[in-house]
Write a structure and sequence with these properties.
five-stranded mixed sheet, alpha+beta, single chain, 25% strand, 17 strands, wza like fold
Length: 385
């Protein structure tokens, strides 16, 4: 009779026993809720490819690759040297024609470009130079001196460039302002000039700010993708910072812990392997989940490609739309999807226990109870004797 009573309590005990987290049915049932707190998306190769091909930021898309290196122009504060040549001595700027050593040219002292973007020229006045190339300024001065000097030719030289700099700050070996060269400089050129990043490339991020617009990508991605290694322009602000990417593994994995990515492209398959894989005696291989706050734009692309699932959309939160990606490791195709699905910073990898685990725990309690009852009965029998 005692055995039958305990056996009848097994289902009740199975539902009351503690577990490492929600089971498969508790997670999947959220899709059927009238007001879901999150949405569950069955992961397949199509969705994995959408996620892998949509980076958050793109330097080339934000600022454009352009047609080559920027054409550097004169700016406020630049030190300019103007040299004027005349066809014959005795002119406005040349020496005495009766002198044997009479010069046919003169170099004016270096002078900075004023805040109004002009330069002072004798017999000409204020000449606008800011935003022009040295060749354009030479032509402008020649035009002003045409009727005043003897066939003048003008050479404009930038002695010291104060306007064609970029500023690099953050986690580089030597933060500084870097002058740009006429040949053109790309992001990696500038960062390498200052000794490179102090952290590994997969933990380093580069934020480029230009004309009030900013974009951030990982240094590893700039190294891997030449399209992100764009030309920098004067007054760009380059900020290099370190932000180690991590994910956390819970549930029926060999080791529950927080793990560093140690790469800029960590796949779900690699994440499961880093967590020690699924526990054979506990894990439900059909119930591998990734919890994430998804970008709303990305979420719309995923919903358009999703097959089945609930129709309700959870309310967006400040961090994004709460999404749970589900993968079936018993399906061989699921392993290919795991190889393409990229983990993101602060993702939670959760593996649910198999449904039989709670039953095994309950049976263990019943078995222990029966053993205890048998021992008590045996003692009672001996005492009665």
């Amino acid at each position: 009779m005692r055995f039958l009573v305990l056996l009848a309590l097994v289902p009740v005990l199975a539902g009351c026993l503690p577990s490492s987290g929600p089971n498969r049915s508790a997670i999947l049932s959220e899709n059927e809720s009238a007001a879901p707190q999150f949405t569950v998306i069955a992961l397949n190769q199509t969705i994995s490819e959408i996620l892998a091909s949509q980076p958050a930021d793109n330097l080339a898309a934000t600022f454009g690759m352009g047609g080559g290196s920027p054409n550097l122009t004169i700016g406020v504060g630049d030190q300019i040297v103007v040299t004027i040549f005349e066809a014959a001595a005795g002119g406005l700027f040349s020496g005495d024609p009766n002198s044997i050593s009479g010069s046919k040219s003169v170099s004016l002292p270096p002078q900075p470009v004023a805040r109004d973007g002009t330069l002072s020229m004798p017999y000409v006045g204020r000449v606008p130079v800011a935003g022009r190339t040295p060749e354009q300024v030479s032509e402008a001065i020649e035009a002003e001196l045409k009727d005043k000097a003897i066939e003048p030719q003008v050479v404009v030289t930038v002695a010291s460039a104060a306007s064609t700099f970029v500023t690099v700050a953050g986690d580089v070996a030597k933060p500084s302002r870097v002058p740009l060269s006429l040949k053109g400089d790309r992001l990696l050129d500038i960062i390498a000039t200052l000794g490179g990043s102090r952290a590994p490339d997969y933990d380093s991020f580069v934020r480029l700010t230009r004309n009030g617009r900013s974009a951030t990508v990982s240094l590893a991605r700039i190294v891997r993708d030449p399209g992100q290694n764009i030309y920098v322009r004067p007054s760009d602000l380059i900020y290099v910072f370190t932000d180690p990417q991590t994910f956390t593994a819970f549930g029926a994995t060999a080791r529950n812990a927080t793990y560093p990515f140690q790469t800029d492209r960590l796949t779900l398959a690699q994440a499961v392997g880093r967590a020690g894989g699924l526990l054979d005696r506990r894990a439900d291989p059909r119930s591998v989940f990734v919890f994430r706050y998804e970008d709303p734009k990305m979420y719309q692309l995923i919903r358009a490609a999703q097959v089945g699932g609930g129709n309700q959309i959870p309310a967006p939160e400040a961090a994004g739309i709460p999404v749970v990606y589900k993968l079936d490791f018993k399906d061989p195709v699921g392993l290919f999807s795991a190889q393409r699905f990229l983990m993101r910073d602060n993702d939670i990898l959760y593996v649910s226990n198999a449904s039989s685990i709670s039953l095994q725990k309950a049976l263990g309690i019943v078995s222990g109870s029966l053993g205890t009852a048998a021992t008590i009965t045996s003692i009672e029998d001996r005492l009665s004797d």
